[in-house]
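[Q] Does anyone have a clean structure-token version of this?
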Amino acid sequence: MSERIGRLCDELRIKLHGMDRRLEALKSNGAAMFDQSQDLLESQLDRVEQRIYDNRVTVEAANVRVKTWLAEKRAGSVAGGSRWTERHASHLLEARADDAEAYAIAVFALAAAAADEAALAVLQALLARNDADAAIFPEVGRSIQ
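[A] Here you go.
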């Protein structure tokens, strides 16, 4: 495994662990959050929205990179057979490996962004549920406001 891929794997592992912890905390605290203040939920929502906003350029670039890679992959599979001998030139193999690594990084950036979007959706659902429950059970609504 190349050093670059090794570093990527380590970074992916760290980011996935962080996402897993955040999502697990949301899941386990979901029921408990009903009793917490609206301000706390909104604060968490603001942090996730800010993280999504901060990563928008990275996500846009990742989308472009993925689309480009897929288009090049399709074009390469159409050209296919005649390029077989060319693909064995070391500089072409190196370029192909670099492209595949860039694609892997881009796809992971999109996955991380999707996890943030999922966390945002959970927080929005909790806030909406609190609002609905407060309307149905006004005495409970007073404790979460």
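[Q] Thanks! Anything notable?
[A] The helical segments are 3-33, 38-54, 56-79, 90-136, 138-144.
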